[in-house]
Design goal:
With about 200 residues, this protein is an alpha/beta fold. It has a single domain, classed as Rossmann fold. It contains five helices and twelve strands. A seven-stranded mixed sheet has the order 2-1-3-4-12-11-10. It has a three-stranded mixed sheet with strand order 5-6-9. The structure holds glutamine.
Length: about 200
């Protein structure tokens, strides 16, 4: 028996926590490929942009010549899941970024880098997922020097929040999390991303 054949999802593999994303996708029987150069984007309908360091990733996206092709593919409807640094790279505006840091402006969010402050550099908390049923267990959110959403546009759907601040959000085909859903053995955020992507593509 062959597993259900679905087009693979790309995982940006320039830096950061990409292997854990591949692991969560594999648990859902979704094949993934590592994206390191523009040709790797060919035929992809979905891309994961992992956590790491957004300033470094911005530099590597430019030097690998991936920045512009990713921006074009997003414009043409590529679905993207961006986590932590990935969220920063997808935002409309970044506060406390480096002046040469670039962002893709793919989701109408203003985010502050390391916005949860030094004393809370890393923390965990339970999150209620809006997509879940009321009796569904919470999702354990792992926040590591996480970006904080400071403003969001009317087109942004908030899928989970922490203390009144969106931490999981979606606008059309772009989903972002300020936490690390790949670091818990719980693939619900990835499952929701894949489900949404497949619904929209069908
Ligand atoms: N603080 C990091 C940045 O600015 C993000 C941290 C993370 O991805 N865990 O990119």
């Amino acid at each position: 028996m062959h597993p259900v054949s679905r087009p693979p999802i790309g995982v940006l593999a320039l830096q950061g926590a990409f292997a854990a994303h591949q692991q969560r996708l594999a648990e859902l029987d979704v094949a993934s490929i590592q994206v390191r150069r523009p040709a790797d984007l060919d035929g992809l309908h979905g891309l994961v942009m992992p956590g790491g360091e957004s300033t470094t990733m911005s530099m590597l996206l430019t030097s690998s010549e991936l920045f512009d092709p990713i921006a074009e593919r997003i414009h043409d409807g590529l679905a993207v899941l961006g986590t932590c640094a990935g969220m920063i790279l997808l935002a409309r505006e970044v506060l406390d970024g480096r002046t040469d840091q670039r962002c893709l402006g793919a989701i109408d969010l203003v985010v502050r880098r390391n916005g949860y402050g030094r004393q809370l550099d890393s923390f965990e908390c339970d999150l209620a997922l809006r997509s879940g049923t009321p009796d569904e267990p919470p999702f354990r959110g792992v926040f590591i020097r996480a970006p904080k959403v400071e403003a969001w546009g009317a087109g942004v759907e908030v899928l989970a929040e922490h203390e009144g601040v969106p931490v999981l959000a979606r606008q059309r085909r772009i989903t972002v999390a300020s936490f690390h859903p790949e670091l818990t053995r719980d693939a619900r955020v990835h499952a929701e991303f894949v489900h949404h992507l497949e619904m929209e593509s069908s």
